[in-house]
Amino acid sequence: MEAGGERFHQQSPIPENSPETEVALFRIRDRDSGDNGKMTCSIQDDLPFILKPSEENFYTLVTNGALDRESKAEYNVTITVTDLGTPRLKTEHNITVLVSDVNDNAPAFTQTSYTLWVRENNSPALHIGSVSATDTDASANAQVTYSLLPPPDPLLPLASLVSINPDNGHLFALTSLDYEALRAFEFRVGATDRGSPALSSQALVRVLVADANDNAPFVLYPLQNASAPCTELVPRAAEPGYLVTKVVAVDGDAGQNAWLSYQLLKATEPGLFGVWAHNGEVRTARLLSERDAPKQRLVVLVKDNGEPPLSASVTLHVLLVDGFSQPYLPPPEAEAAAAAPADPLTVYLVVALASVSSLFLFSVLVFVAVRLCRRGGAGSAGRCLVPEGHFPGHLVDVSGTGTLSQSYQYEVCLMGGPGTNEFKF
């Protein structure tokens, strides 16, 4: 380098992560002689570069280790040349070293895991949240695309549940979610840059389905779809607070949507029974009297604590008895069913059976009458083959019971012509 003239060659930009890379090549010269023509060359001490001298006053500026563009992408280097004369003269030359990007950084998510909430019965294509990743590289090395990774559970139909926008990381639920069927699921998303080779990273996403009050209480006891309704027996001597029965119900929702309360909606005798609000126990509220109807009908309302609340009702049949040995009386519904007109088909069957039975009885009576008439005619025209005289004494039962001691066969002949029949006793 000389005052008034320069010979300088610079490479720019310099790829990062390239140790001992040549940045610039130059030559210095001083037209003085002796010590006045001798020169020193230097740069700042805080730079990651060094000067390597060679013959004929040539110098090479090289990197002193690998550069990191993400830490510093540009350097201003001042090359100072000083002679050894008196007074010392110097000259300076400034160069700018640019550091080019290398795809050495993978995308990084803003969080290692994300928790997203979605209310059940959501509309399809609903935006439920977003994930975000950044890349400290430059240009195409910093462009990030997002994707869903295969779930750890192969049975989870992830492709039908959620999708992700590859450009911005937005997540839109694809179907309406049901809290009672799927309360939570998780999956991983990937962020990949467009460098060569491409680098990527992952983040865990957990989706929690929030419950909505979409299930009414369901009564387990007493059963409401039974053919014969259940009847509870209460002795008339029962004290106030006597436990009659307990209504048992469940709710498929969760949290306050599943908190149930009970109340007596209707009763045959208001004030005779009460229902505990929190456990569904039905108890007597006062002493029973003879004036209380023996058949009591109660309607209990079961309501959840959702917004808006959902409810169900249950009908109870209570029979007041003097003692538990008293015969069971059917509920009013059973009596009404018994008093209802019979089915036409049943009526036809009964009439047919009665007709056949009457015809059979009439045929038997006619047959007996005919036989008796024939027997009467034969008695007047024929004779009986019964021996005359007394029975031998040894054939008579002497025990006084009036029976014969041996078994005998008697023959009665009805003589009346060709139609005569013979009977044996």
UniProtKB/TrEMBL annotation:
One of its GO terms (biological process) is homophilic cell adhesion via plasma membrane adhesion molecules. Residues 1-20 are annotated as: Disordered. The chain crosses the membrane at residues 347-370. It is found in: Membrane. InterPro entries: Cadherin-like_dom, Cadherin-like_sf, Cadherin_C, Cadherin_CS, Protocadherin/Cadherin-CA. It is a single-pass membrane protein. SMART domains: CA. This is Cadherin domain-containing protein. GO terms for molecular function: calcium ion binding. One of its GO terms (cellular component) is plasma membrane. Pfam families: Cadherin, Cadherin_C_2. PANTHER family: CADHERIN-87A, PROTOCADHERIN BETA-12. Its main location: membrane. It comes from Ovis ammon polii. Keywords: Calcium, Glycoprotein, Membrane, Repeat, Transmembrane, Transmembrane helix.
